[in-house]
Amino acid sequence: MLQLEYLALYENSFSGEIPNELLQLPNLKFLYLYGNNLTGPIPNFPPHCNLIELFIYENNLSGNIPPSLRNCRKLTSFDASTNKIEGTLAIETFCMLHQLELLYLEKNSLTGTLPSCLWNLPNLSEIYLSSNNFNGVIPQEIGMCQSLVELSLWGNQLTGSIPDSVGNLTSLELLVLARNSLSGSLPGSIGKCSSLVEIQLQENNLSGQIPREICDLGVLQKMYLFKNKIGGYIPREIWKLHSLKEFQLYNNSLIGEIPSEITLLKQLNSISLAYNNLTGEVPYFLGNTSTGLVSIDLTGNSFYGPIPPYLCSNGSLEILDLGYNRFNTVSFGSIFSCSSLTRIILRDNQLRGSLPACTFPTSAISYFDLSNNFLDGQIPKEIGSWKNLTKLDLSNNLFSGAIPTELGTITNIEMINLSSNRLVGSIPHELGHCKKLLLLDLSQNFLSGHIPVNVLTLITLQHLLLQNNKLTGSIPNLFSANQGLLELLLGKNLLDGSIPSSLGNLQYIYLGLNMSLNNFTGQIPSNLGNLDKLQVLDLSHNSLSGQIPSSLNKMVSLSSVNLSFNRLSGDIPKNWGKFVILSPGSFSGNENLNLQNLNHNFSKSINKQNDRAKRELVALAVVLGVSILLAGFCVAKYAALTRARTRSISSRRLLSCSTNSTDELPEDLTYDDIMRATDNLSEKFVIGRGRHGTVYCTEFGEGKKWAVKLVDLSQSRFCVEMQVLASIKHRNLVRMSGYCIRDAIGLILCEYVPGGTLFEVLHQRTPIVALGWRTRYKISLGVAQALAYLHHDCMPMVVHRDVKSSNVLLDFDLEPKLADFGLARFVEVESDSSNTVSAIVGTLGYIAPENGYATKINEKCDVYSYGVMLLELLCRKMPVDPRFGDGVDIVKWVNSNLNQVDNFSIMNCLDEEIWYWEVDEREKALQLLELALLCTRFERETRPTMREIVNALIKIDR
């Protein structure tokens, strides 16, 4: 063994630690232990180490890299990636390895800054440090590493700008700096990296314009700059990138038109410019490349005119995403003749005309979305030949005629949405043959006839929406426990007969059961009480009679009930008192229904067996009464203050500077400019009101929008606080650009964030905004990084004290920005006390429990509020929701579900959309749920810090 030079034990199932004796072998030169289950630390290396190659990646090694590694002066290749190694890259360890050529340490937990001397290693050609926790800036010394060919630093916490010295790396072929917090402009010197084949700078905070020098990279094949803040025009010199194959700039702030010179890129096969501010017509010959474009994504811009007919000129186009633009003309013949297409999304344009009634080719199309246009005519039956189709959305158009029966032959179809058209005729029973169908939405048409039995009883169907039609007949009593229906909406039709008792077998239904505005008769089936997950029940405007079954008390998840305008009699279920109080109209129009024992006086004539229900309702009434009195007092107080403030503002007109005036505004902007731009703070410019002031939106100059916040100056430290806030800069904090004071009035000038609040996106947008894993993760990480910055990087520390979804603003690409520092406080670090502030503030549902008893509140109250926001983001439920039950908030509700032993209870906590994610994304969502529960622990000392939360989030998404 002493003479052993080469040892390869890779990709076995070895476990345990690496024996110390192994690395002590004096002649060992090549050691390959990768792809095992080895644990523990890396052993120390001998004083006279002869190792040349050491590959120990894809194990479970932990601890620090031993300083004795510096003894391996002959080492050329070191790969310890995909382990659990911690610590820093010590200067005394790595800077002595002058023979090192390959350094792979990605997917570990390394921290600290990148040592400058690392870039002085003369032979270093490949360095992979991705997916760690490195911070700080990229050193200027990187330009000294002349032999560097591949550099990958993605997925760290690097800040600052990309150094100009990167232009010295003339041998560099791969540059990967994605998913950091890099800022500033792309250096023009990058155009000197003449060997560059691939650039990955996506998911940073880069701004400025695309430097024209980048077009000098003649061998560049892949350019990924998406999810930054890059503005300006696409350089016309782009034609010089004659080797370019992939061009990904989506989610930026690009303006202008796509230069016609882009059609000269004959190697181009993928282009995505989605979600920018581009306009104009798309170049006519965009698809005219040597090999043909494979993917085109121009979603979310302002392109207009015709969709070019030759995008699939070489028959290789697979993905065509042109939604959310202003296109008005399309040649469907040229699109449908492209047999390679798998995805066509033209939704939310201004397209007119009809789909051609011709023989379509055998198609690979799996996703076809033309929703929200002005298309008319009949739906071609030839769509039934698209055997790979999984999603069909033609909703919100002007289609007429019957639904083609041929749709029932598409065996792989999962979603059919033909809602909001002018379709007539009956629902084809052939749709019942679609054994993978999850959603069928035929609502808001003119359909008639019976609902096919095999459609109603389709086992896989989760969403059946048939409301607002002219359907007739009775509903068969054939629903079974095997069905996966989550919502059944049959309202506003001409259905009759009795409500089938077998509806009570639908054990998974929870989103809604709506059979209103029909002609149903008979009694409400007692079996409906089995629907204990159902949230919305609407049986209004029918001819139902008899008593409301007492078994409906078991429907504990109900948040909304409507039984109005029937012929019901007797008492309502004893647990439904809250619905009578909150929405009495939900029971009106039933002359013989007894509400007397549930009015606001709670008559003493209630039967003794209902004493418990009476006590609950009395308590609820007291709470509501007190709340109403308090609300009335607050409203009156606010009105008085508002009147006084209005008189004060009106009298001054906010136009003259008094001796109490201070301006800290951009050089080209004055107080008078703000007043002119807002028409003296006119109501027409108001975009929001909060507890801390009114927010106006206006423009200064061409196209530059700003938010202006008007506040009362309630404390003398306003100027000081504004100066400190103006110095706080972070990509996930709303940037304040200046402020001015006139007497007791303050105006704060902030950046305008156009995407609304997280609260609106989660709870108020119609239709519901789809939020995939990547978006929810981005929001979670962005807010966490903002709070970590406030808590750990600001001096003095800033505690926000009002973290909530309505204070998280979203830009066009749903990048989060924490806003509203009206309750924020600065906390000095003192040796004799904790970092605390004295106050009980915040928003109901987000307030940490210690706010009710502690005299001092520290930054952990922000951690708790952040955890609540995470639960809200994952569950898509408000922090305080009647569906949780009396006195139960989202934290208690989630914990109670997690205490159940079945997986359904755990998944039932989460937004339904998450159920359909890929397995790995669902697992990440559950890890995020676990982190949220750590943040919302009752004892604040046991909650993690925001810096620990950021690190945990980064590990979740590796």
UniProtKB/TrEMBL annotation:
Annotated transmembrane regions: 617-640
Listed EC numbers: 2.7.11.1
Enzyme class: transferase
Compartments, as annotated in UniProt: Cell membrane
The reaction(s) this protein catalyses: L-threonyl-[protein] + ATP = O-phospho-L-threonyl-[protein] + ADP + H(+); L-seryl-[protein] + ATP = O-phospho-L-seryl-[protein] + ADP + H(+)
Database matches in Gene3D superfamilies: Phosphorylase Kinase, domain 1, Ribonuclease Inhibitor, Transferase(Phosphotransferase) domain 1
Residues reported to bind ATP: 709
Membrane topology annotation: Single-pass membrane protein
Keywords from the UniProt entry: ATP-binding, Cell membrane, Glycoprotein, Kinase, Leucine-rich repeat, Membrane, Nucleotide-binding, Phosphoprotein, Receptor, Repeat, Serine/threonine-protein kinase, Signal, Transferase, Transmembrane, Transmembrane helix
UniProt domain Protein kinase: residue ranges: 681-954
Segment forming the signal sequence: none
Principal location: membrane
Record-given protein name: non-specific serine/threonine protein kinase
Stored InterPro entries: Kinase-like_dom_sf, Leu-rich_rpt, Leu-rich_rpt_typical-subtyp, LRR_dom_sf, Plant_LRR-RLKs, Prot_kinase_dom, Protein_kinase_ATP_BS, Ser/Thr_kinase_AS
The keyword Transmembrane is assigned to this record: yes
Organism: Rhynchospora pubera
Pfam family, one: Pkinase
One term under GO cellular component: plasma membrane
UniProt-recorded Gene Ontology molecular function terms: ATP binding; protein serine/threonine kinase activity; receptor serine/threonine kinase binding
